[in-house]
Design brief:
Elements: E1 8-10, H1 19-34, E2 42-45, H2 47-56, H3 63-78, E3 81-82, E4 88-89, E5 91-96, E6 107-111, H4 115-125, H5 128-145, H6 151-165, H7 175-193, H8 201-215, H9 219-227, E7 239-244, E8 255-260, E9 272-277, H10 282-286, E10 292-293, H11 297-300, H12 302-319, E11 323-330, E12 333-341, H13 346-358, H14 364-369, H15 377-380, E13 383-384, E14 394-395, E15 397-400, E16 403-409, H16 412-420, E17 425-429, H17 437-442, E18 445-448, H18 456-464, E19 468-470, E20 475-478, E21 483-486, E22 489-492, E23 496-500, E24 505-508, E25 513-514, H19 520-532, E26 536-540, H20 544-552, E27 558-562, H21 563-567, H22 573-581, H23 585-609, E28 614-618, H24 631-652, H25 654-661, H26 663-687, H27 690-706, H28 718-723, H29 725-744, E29 750-755, H30 761-782, E30 789-794, H31 797-801, H32 803-809, E31 812-816, H33 817-825, H34 829-842, H35 859-873, E32 878-882, H36 889-897, E33 902-906, H37 910-922
Parallel strand pairs: 3-4, 16-17, 17-18, 18-19, 26-27, 26-33, 27-28, 28-29, 29-30, 30-31, 31-32, 32-33
Antiparallel strand pairs: 1-2, 2-7, 5-6, 5-7, 8-9, 8-11, 9-10, 11-12, 13-25, 14-24, 15-19, 16-23, 20-21, 21-22, 23-24
Helix pairs in contact: 4-5, 5-7, 6-7, 13-19, 19-37, 20-23, 22-23, 23-29, 24-27, 25-26, 29-30, 32-35, 36-37
The structure holds adenosine-5'-diphosphate (ADP) and magnesium ion (MG) (2 copies).
One magnesium ion (MG) binds near residues 326 and 338.
Amino acid sequence: MGGSKQYIYDFDKGDGKNKMLLGGKGANLCEMTQIGLNVPPGFTITTEACLAYLEKNQLPDGLMDAVKTHIQALEKKTGKGFGSGKNPLLVSVRSGSSMSMPGMMDTILNLGLNESSLQGLIKLTANERFAYDTYRRFIQLFGKIALDISDEHFDKHMTAVKRKFGALQDVDLKTEHLQEVAAGFMEIVQRHTGKPFPQDPYEQLEIAVGAVFHSWMGKRAVDYRKQFKITRDMANGTAVNVCTMVFGNMGNDSATGVGFTRNPGTGENIIYGEYLTNAQGEDVVAGIRTPKAISEMETEMPEIYRQLIELRDRLESHYQEVQDFEFTIEKGILYCLQTRNGKMNARAMVRTSVEMFNAGLITRERALLRIDPAILEQLLVPQLAPNFRGKSLAQGLPASPGAASGKIVFDADTAEIRGRAGEKIILVREETKPEDIHGFFQAEGILTSRGGKTSHAAVVARGMGKPCVSGCEQIVINDALRSAQIGETTLHEGDVITINGGTGHVYAGEVPTVHAEFSQEMATLLSWADEVSRLKVMANADTPNDAARAREFGAMGIGLCRTERMFNSTDRLPIVQEMILAETTEARQAALDRLLPIQRADFKGIFKAMKGLPVTVRLLDPPMHEFLPTAAQLELEIAHLHQLRDTIKGLEELPDTLKMLNPKLYQQYADGLTKLMGGLSDFKESHLEEDVISKKEVVLKKVRALAEVNPMLGHRGVRLGITYPEIYSMQIRAVLEAAALCAKEGLEIHPEIMVPQVATVEELKRIHSYVQRIHAEVKATQGIDVKFKFGSMLEVVRACMRAGRMAETAEFFSFGTNDLTQATFSFSREDAENKFLPAYTETGILEDNPFEVLDIKGVGQLMKMAVQKGRATNPELKVGICGEHGGHPGSIRFCHHVGLNYVSCSGPRVPIARLAAAQAKLLEDKYQEPV
Ligand code: ADP
Ligand code: MG
Ligand code: MG
């Protein structure tokens, strides 16, 4: 069949847009040729030929005949002959698929050389040294790639020759030395293959093409595709590019190099790259000699430099993108050998977007679309100094990006004390719990030895924008000794470590970090984004500090303010516990009365930070026992206290016993003993009174009473609000009074009250009645009619089903997709992530972890239905999403698609969400919901 299919395209014919067929390198060689750039002539053998080869394990019928025809055309075009003894045509045989896979497949240079064409090359160039240099390169590359002979055999011989003649570098080798190298290489080939080096250039070409095709299924390439999730519809087979050789190794007016049209590290609009004079392509990457910076070319080869700048301008204006390109200069003539879109860091992407738009190179739309929102994360947190090359002690999971250094502290209380005292600390724990939150506030970063990327530590750290490494299992923590063991190394409390939450690495000592910068360019880019998007981007923030930061990141309000975070700080927790432990409604009310002014002040702080913008306050959500110590901890403490009491009792008898048994010894230590006894009784008084222990026993009893089989499905959220109306009432009052007080100060505020875990319309109505009553009371006492909104979380499946009726009472909905995902899958998150989800995603039962990437096919459909039902009742209904998915670009596209009004995510993700929201709008016509 081979004859009927076109397997080969000349560079001046191939479709520069068809990367699937021609590979990225081939397509761009065609495109550059066709826009008139100086590309050495050649042709591309398609990926379809590769697939045909792989199917039958041989080149398709007729392929080599077609290759011959194209070589003949090349001979005509260049006036050279393939294998000619006078004016030989040499080619490179280069792999290239539609996805760039750096270093995975191979390229053979200088193909077509044999004993006769070598002489031709010598005659033609009158440069014997160059010819032998080229020859030995070819034998080695062909030997390695086409004949599968390991490089080390060639390198060993090369080194031996260099040593023999005292040459330091390959450029120091003279003609006769290179002759010796080539002769030795020939022998190596003979020895390894049992055959002489193939002399027929067509045979060379046939073997080379087959070898490149073959490399597509080589272990290296297959592993790479697996690692980077390159699927068949992204890249299927490699093309082979046959390209006339041009020589950068023809003397000092020749060179080879690689360039970026702009600086890929900073985005600065200056050509950037390296070159080597008198060298061939692979030398630059191989690091055989140290290349020079392109800027030096301006003085060394001014004319070529001018051409290079012209090439750079033409590449950029054609591709409308920063290009990463390869070039060679042969005797003063510049050739372009490859181009592709430049890979840049986030900083460079942002800067080039803004500058290319300002220069009229690209549209605003393109400026927004060319950046993957996720990479902005790099810019928003401190990073390890870019030049740092140290070795890490251990590696865990990259749970929250950014780098931080500080002294190790093993518990949240110590973290709080030392942090408050101004020390930089890293909180290191096996895993963290909600009651550790006060330690988070004071820590630079968090390191845990257990838990995944969505463990408590990870979620909270991400919310606060603090670096976190989780699940670092090499670390064994010994709480009692206040030390941790990593292999041979022992770390003590107070030792300094550095964590990199972007990679999961843990380092000993302080590693320099660089600060996040919200550059002018970023601000500009994101302001363009805001002009385009329809979705508003809000932040999840629980404190005035978080709120202020979120605002700096461009949040358009607070979509989720979790009141329980406020309950957890050390000065409030005792009052909260008192409230929980209260035996009577009056006692509970008394504790709540003390909490009211504190919450009111919290809300005032947040309202002030967000003045002019909406702030959505969620009423208390977690089950009460989360504010109490665990039963196990209490049991242990009680047991310890009993033990201590017994021990002290024993000690109290010590002086008498001693006096009786050994009066002399007693005399000797009498003073010390008296002191000790005094100390003990002081201690006893303060720590061991009957009621310390009995108090703990009361708490333990309560903790046991509050214990639930399924806390996530237990007594929490609105169910607390129904059973303890006084708790929700206090919170509602705090919100409305804070709003009234701010309004009196002349601040414009937009409070919204949100009820969690609602399942029935009746629950929502019940809470709404509290709100109406308290609103009227506040109006009476404060003399101000506070405007506010009342709404519901949708995080229970039933609430989605009842969305139509819910919208009669709720003015807004906010999807809590973390809980909704758990409920929809009937997965308990921690169990799922620790036990079976990895197997599900690895074996393809699920594409992604639904707790990280919104499950559009399931959870998304519930959302869609709820939006429709809700808006059918109330077309003005405001709908948003809070929960981690709100900051995920793919999920944001879906939220736009189903007509949400806003997404709410953690502060540091706000810029990412702003860009993603703009892209969602720009790409809305192309959106296809996964089915
Ligand atoms: P890779 O994909 O690994 O970059 P390439 O096919 O681009 O492999 O080639 C490797 C090196 O050889 C590059 O530096 C390239 O510029 C150089 N090279 C490839 N073809 C030619 C040619 N026809 N003339 C001169 N140098 C070439
Ligand atoms: Mg290349
Ligand atoms: Mg929830």
